[in-house]
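Reviewer comment 2.1 asked that we show a complete input and output for one of the modelled complexes. We chose the 1,3-dihydroxyacetonephosphate case, as it is the one discussed in the main text.
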Amino acid sequence: MPSPRTPLVAGNWKMHGLSSALSELAVIAEGVARGAAGRASCAICPPATLLAKAVEIAGPDLAIGGQDCAPRVFGAHTGDLSAEMLNDAGARYVIVGHSERRENHGETDALVLAKAEAAFRAGLTAILCVGETRDERDAGRAFDVVGRQVEHSVPPASTADNLVLAYEPVWAIGTGLVPTVDDVAAMHQFLRERLQTLLPDGGAGVRILYGGSVKPDNAAALLAINNVDGALVGGASLKAIDFLAIAASYR
Ligand code: 13P
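Response of the prediction step:
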């Protein structure tokens, strides 16, 4: 059954991309503008160094996002970028709580919640990531872990407009491994129920993306699953042809 919510296909370029990569972004923008992405909204989150130029190239149809933000507005925080700064550069989205940041920078659920609130304050939509490790899944704790992440990192002020949730099993990121259709369906159904409990007014409208080794050849099957309202794409978003093929799965 097609999602009743407008799907979002977002690319996370992570720490990839010098100025030369903007030519790939231009091809994505051109494709989205001519309708190649079907009914999906599209966003690319490049490294912060490319944000302002990316916004110029992207035009009105392709949104640009940051990959992280600080919880505070400004101050003595060398190297950090506030959500206001991302907004000022033209970003419309910001990823918060990606597992690489939770792991590499020790980000806790409380910090992720503060970052999501910072995004709301600045008028950005937060793409908030949750997901279990392989060990956690093997121990039968996936729902427990992900449920707890949602409960502790989704701000009460979340709405369908300011929050997108992304389920990214850590073991599926960059590995070519993907959960079965049944496992994705079960987790997204679980997340929908949790969101509706936590956010009685907006939970039904919040989009829930799947992320982790989404490629052109598995996108149609993944994106057809109930409560999968789009994808958060890493490696395959670096190539315009692959990103557009994934987005076109919603045609
Ligand atoms: P891959 O698509 O490369 O597995 O990365 C997923 C991801 O982490 C997106 O945020």
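Residues 131-237 form a domain with the TIM Barrel fold (CATH 3.20.20.70). We note this here for comparison with the apo prediction described in Section 3.2.
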